[in-house]
Amino acid sequence: MTIYERALELIPDGAVLGLGSGRAATSFVKALAERLRSRGLKVRGVPTSRAKAELAGQLGIPLTTLAEVETLDVCVDGADEVAPDLDLMKGYGRALMREKIVAASARQLITLVTPEKLVSRLGSRGRLPVEVVEFGLPLCERRLRDLGLTPVAYREGDRLFLSDNGNPIFDCGVGPLDEPARPERDLRAIPGVVGTGQFLGLATRVLVGEPDGLTLIEERKRPA
After folding, report:
1. Domain with 17 in it
2. What is the tens place of the pLDDT at every residue in 151-195?
3. Residues 208, 173 share a domain
4. Which residue pairs from 185-192 have beta carbons closer than 8 angstroms and sit at least 24 positions apart in sequence?
5. 87, CA 20 to 30 Å: which among 105, 127, 136, 197?
């Protein structure tokens, strides 16, 4: 069984479903579309990026919005780091704020990863994405440096990258974080910071799959 097949087992018929970004989420969306065709599963999806909305539309997955539904049943997404308590680091794919909003709207967040994404502490891979308002870019950069971070604005070629929300994203160099909630508070207190790649207390289940074929090798649940 793959991690995608296991995730599909956890999706009830009629569910309103958050559709994450990134490679793992893209593979899941393709598997979901096939399940809709082959078995008549009925779902509605809320995509976390314009690219995922376009893909879902091409594959025939019905879409809705957060304005039309009060709560999502499940969100399925990937992650860049998973700590032992299932706290996550996300945002390497540049859709972190829409991903966080959709995840926070869901009763469950199912996260799909390969083993190298499992870390002992968040920050172990050395990068913390932070999305900021473009007008506040200079202030945010100074304040991030004051916190001991090394922010680098992400660029595409010679142009500043802007998220689907129209915001730049800093990749902040970090080391392993002993208390992730503490820097999260400090970062959110900076005027102009929209949000960070730390997803604390949101994931309910993590499915770990082999890199070759993504065969399910481990399933982790957040303690009740």
Report:
1. 3-79+91-114+200-218
2. 999 999 999 999 999 999 999 999 999 999 999 999 999 999 999
3. no
4. 186/147, 187/130, 187/144, 187/147, 190/139, 190/140, 190/143, 190/144, 191/136, 191/139, 191/140, 192/132, 192/133, 192/135, 192/136, 192/137, 192/139, 192/140
5. 136
pTM > 0.70:
yes
Say which CATH number the domain at 182 has.
Answer: 3.30.70.260
Q: Does the annotation mark 99 as catalytic?
A: yes
pLDDT, tens digit, 9 for 90 and up, residues 125-142: 999 999 999 999 999 999
Together in a domain, 24 and 96: yes
Instruction: Find the catalytic residue in 99, 131, 141, 184.
Output: 99
